[in-house]
Amino acid sequence: MAAIEVEQLQRRFSDEVLAVAGIDLEVAEREIYAFLGPNGAGKTTTVRMLTTLLKPTGGSARVAGFDVARDAGNVRRSIGVALQEAALDPLMTGRELMELQATLHGLPRGEAKRRGNALLLRVGLMEAADRRVGTYSGGMRRRLDLASALVHDPKVLFLDEPTTGLDPVSRITIWEEVRKLNDEGTTVFLTTQYLEEADQLADRVGIIDEGRMAAEGTPTALKAQIGRSHLEVTISEGGGPHAEEILARFGEPMPSRDGILMVSLEHGASDVAPIVRALDDAGLCVESLELVKPTLDDVFVAKTGRHLEGAGDGEGQQPQEEPAPVEVPSA
After folding, report:
1. Coil, helix or strand for 221?
2. pLDDT at 328
3. pLDDT tens digits, residue range 126-164?
4. Long-range contacts made by residues 17-23, C-beta under 8 angstroms, separation at least 24?
């Protein structure tokens, strides 16, 4: 049984506005599925339908084996949801919030306390458990929201842009936790504005545009659809023409740029070592060599005609301190 099954799912808000125009997708159990789309593409509307926050106006969707329209209660009991804007009471402590969440899910008092403490420890918040949530940094609040979504041990976890606005260190911490959860058997449906995040985490990626699925597949397969990897080589002065002849034996030559020779490689990285040996045997001095692979941003542009909002934000940056916590007045 698939964890998520969607057939011709639609959501019409008016005669003029068809936000989701009959999409099909399937997410296997124990899979991490990244769902990408430009603003206004129907991504958020789809997630709201899958999490029972919005009723479909056409088609069907099943999550954890339950129909989102006819059996919404069982869907909600089977899923965890961590939204981008976490609704966390700033006056409660982390421990109080976790115990309240567990109680709302019907856990007995003793079990609620045990489960809350275990999850706080898991996400690295035990030392801050008795501090008010309003004093938490952004990364701490995101981890607390993730922990609260796990309190009832859901089969399927929906994460809505879980690392938006976080510094690189906090982002990697969330990535590690998502991987651990998936290794333990949790299916993860992830929306993100960071293509690097989808590339790092997802088993498969779905791209929605103008309410329709524009592409779906593994990151590797999607990148392979739009082009091969290419090699960029800089040769010491005078060796360019001879190097071009050698590179042409291994792939399709591409126009050079600023003295950099480029060749498209059919087999990617496995072609690099023979090229280096051939250049060395010819007595040519290689000053630099870089294998450039297609990116998910290239895929996104090819499929939608535009870049994903926020694509590349935060990538390659040094970790920064998070904003100072908000002071909360005493009760």
Report:
1. helix
2. 43
3. 999 999 999 999 899 999 999 999 999 999 999 999 998
4. 18/211, 19/45, 19/211, 20/45, 20/46, 20/49, 20/56, 20/208, 20/211, 21/210, 21/211, 21/212, 22/58, 22/59, 22/212, 23/59, 23/208, 23/211, 23/212, 23/213
Q: What are φ and ψ of residue 326, in 5° steps?
A: -80, 135
Q: Which two tokens stand for residue 140?
A: 């701490």
Tell me yes or no: is domain 4-223 CATH 3.40.50.300.
yes
pTM of this prediction exceeds 0.90? no
What are the tokens at 16? 């003029």
Q: Using one digit for the tens of pLDDT, what is the confidence trace for 256-277?
A: 878 889 888 888 888 899 999 9
| HSE-up of residue 198 (Cα within 13 Å, Cβ side) | 34
Q: Both tokens of residue 71? A: 């059996």
Half-sphere exposure of 184 (CA within 13 A, CB side): 13
Per residue in 87-98, pLDDT (tens digit) is 789 999 999 999
Cα-based angle 56, 212, 175 (whole degrees, multiple of 5):
85
Q: How many CB atoms lie within 10 A of CB 171?
A: 23
Q: Which residues of 194-210 are buried (b: 16+ CB within 10 A; e: fewer)?
A: bbbbbbbbbebbbbbbe
Domain ranges in the chain are 4-223, 228-292
The CATH number of the domain covering residues in 228-292: 3.30.70
Share of residues in the chain with pLDDT > 90 (%):
66
